[in-house]
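1st attempt posting a full record on here, be nice pls
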Amino acid sequence: MSKPEVVELPVLQEQAMVPCCPPITAGELSQADAEKMAAMFKALSDPVRLRLFSRVASHPDGEACVCDIADVGVSQPTVSHHLKKLREAGLLTSERRGTWVYYQVAPSVVAAMSAMLDLRA
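the predicted structure (as tokens):
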């Protein structure tokens, strides 16, 4: 067997991440920016999704196993559906470890949503 080569990948700094959209007070949103942001806000507009997102965001380890957050009053397939919608909107990232999936909040996306709504800009 050959020895595998280890390659170091660059690490992105959170400060270097640029929001997708300018603040709402900076001017009219472009069609593309409005569609991006609407998809994110739409994903959070469902109470079950908002609760799931909140559980992941407030988890002490910065990530949460689906087994720890699934008790939101709906069936497991419905939880999976809502988590999929949050992932598709870019609000969560996920990683499979064995039989469980762990979710993390995508900090750059949340920062973009926050920056867009900042009225002080």
